[in-house]
Amino acid sequence: MRATSTAVFMVLMAFSVAHAQDRQASATMMNAEGNEAGTVTFAETPSGVLHITVEMTGMPPGAHGFHIHETGECDPEGGFESAGGHYVGDDDNAHGIMNPEGPHAGDRPNVHVGQDGVLKIEYFTDELSISGDDSPLMDEDGSAVVVHGSPDDYESQPSGEAGDRIACGVIE
Ligand SMILES: [Cu+2]
Ligand SMILES: [Zn+2]
Question: How far is the CA of 105 from the centre of ligand 2 (A)?
């Protein structure tokens, strides 16, 4: 009896450890024409820091605003306005790292695309999470990754004057 419950406990422990390390979410990106444009992956790491990987193609060369928006809905017909405003997080900050009251939790660095239209980035952050009480990315109405036509000026309210929403992906 005791051996059995110990064995069950150990199996459960092994499962939860594996689960914690493997937890991952991703967004399949769609461009303004409604075609697939790549993937953004969010992976939890053993340190608790979130590892973000961006792999997109067919992007217009130049600098683009890149944010997490508050609603997990990407409708190209409406210019991806369905994704709502920036994900704000718990602190109700203003937009932009250049604002003393900023930034939003969903404010991410601008991304830069070369002449080949390829965007490949990886970085990590502890400002976002895909699990637990402060899981901004997987709340009830979800959230979305949005890429803009122009760079974020990191300052203008409410969203950095980053222009049209040229790609969007629901985080799931
Ligand atoms: Cu945005
Ligand atoms: Zn913002």
Answer: 7
